[in-house]
Amino acid sequence: MRLPNLLATARGRLLAFFLLYTTEGVPLGFAATAVATQLRRLGVGPAEIGAFVAAFYLPWAFKWAFGPLVDVVRSRRLGHRRAWIIGTQLAMAATLLALIWVPLPQGLAWFTAILLVHNTVAAVQDVAIDALAVSTLAEKERGLANGLMFAGASVGQAVGGAGVLALMEITGLQGGTIAVAATILAVTVFVVLPMKEALAAGEPPAAAGLRAALAQMQGFAQEAFRSFLGTRSAFVALWSALLPASAMSLSLALQTNLAVELGMADDEVALLALLSTVTSGACMVVGGWLSDHLGRRRTLAVYVTLVSVPVLWLAWMLQAAGYVMPRAPGGPPLPELIRHLWVATLAFNVALGLSYGTRIAVYMDVTNPAVAGTQFTAYMAMSNLAIAFAATWQGVAAEALGYPVTLLLDALLGLVGIALLPWLGRPLSASLCDAGAVGRARLMGRTLAVACMAFVAWWLLHDPRGPAAGVAGTVFTLAFIAAALYLYAGGLLQPDDATFVRRTRWLALAMLLLYARRWLPELPAEAQEAGKWVVAVVPLVAAAWLWRMAARPWPGLNEAHSGATT
Q1: DSSP state for residue 19 in the 8-state scheme
Q2: N or C: which end of the chain has fewer CB within 10 A?
Q3: Can you give the pTM of this predicted structure?
Q4: Which domains does the chain have, with CATH numbers?
């Protein structure tokens, strides 16, 4: 039987993008719920599980960088975006199947590394799916299609989390892993392979794709730099995206850790994850509709506040019951605290769902239409970095301070972003740069220089085995990524000195390579000592270079336009 080309009809397109987004949600639910639950049962601590979940989100912070490659590098035989989707889905399945041979918990480092590769590929797939949707969907289909795409991601998370967790009682972790890979391959075979993607007129030959992609990447970097620093609202939105969207603890590994410790069986954890996902997805629609009618920033402030309420309530209940520090799983069930966890988690997901779509709409409001793809995708990427950071610090804090204090901190930190809402008004002008753009560029450069200097002091003095080492390391990784982007993009806006620009690019690459410091302890002792000093010298040089760069003229930003915000 010949399978239909779903892109040929309106209903087929809606179904296709729903299923494609399902393949994005399944691995996320699998790692954050199913695998995290099994790791806790195997005795892995909350800090390690938090770092594991954080590594899963990290590649999504860089998906904006793949846009030019997906747009330019193409296959005439397989179709432009279809080729990328086929290749990435096959790679996603292959990396998942590779996990079967990694023993847990002793192989957690390799398990995490493989999933890091998997999610890097998944991020590329997401870019290709979005690009296919833009080029394929009719204008009147896009609203419903986007709703179905987010619903597909939620269904995928429920299948990968609750569904696989229930299945693992019969098949074990290996069987669950095979089921996740099989789900992705099924969509590849029955949905993607039968697709017929129309060939756009005037497409360049594939051989010229990589060169064109590199040239397009340069233009992208300049646009991104101007977009973020050009207007006050866009600049404030950058910092807002790096802050927690709200309290996050009951949507990350902390909730799973508690469920296991309190004595919930796998089927109970699966049911809680399923109901949480469905509840949150339904409330996303309601929250967005209310924000359209009652005001975006006003309703978002209310929603974010509501997210903290069940977190504070659960912290109080745990403290009152004397359940403070993490405990080894396997003890007798604690029915009263299990009921409290159910109530808090479901109430949390109601408020979280209300806030989710509204927060995304706020970023759309401040995004300049001229560079919407660049700017909005980057805001979403920064939000993923915030999730990764939250997962890391919550695991460390739970082991060091206990659950009630961690929940209290999460509830309070989740409210910080409300203070920035008054400055997130919609720009009245479509100009990329206003009169304050140069000043913001200099402030950003000097801030990053100070962060690099702080890292050098911390790196040479800190205890690598200390409980806060992972959290601090995540913060500095974020600073290094920002510094690399600042150096590369800022250099493109200062073309008057070719030697300066060339050295700036090499330094930007060195800053990105500092992420490899996490594998330094695996090296021989002599190599570790040499590597330690290399890791200290690179950010020291970068700090001096950033400070110097901030003080230079900014001809690419020195285009004063009125950019007031409402």
Answers
A1: H
A2: N
A3: 0.71
A4: 1-195 (1.20.1250.20), 222-433 (1.20.1250.20), 437-551 (no CATH)
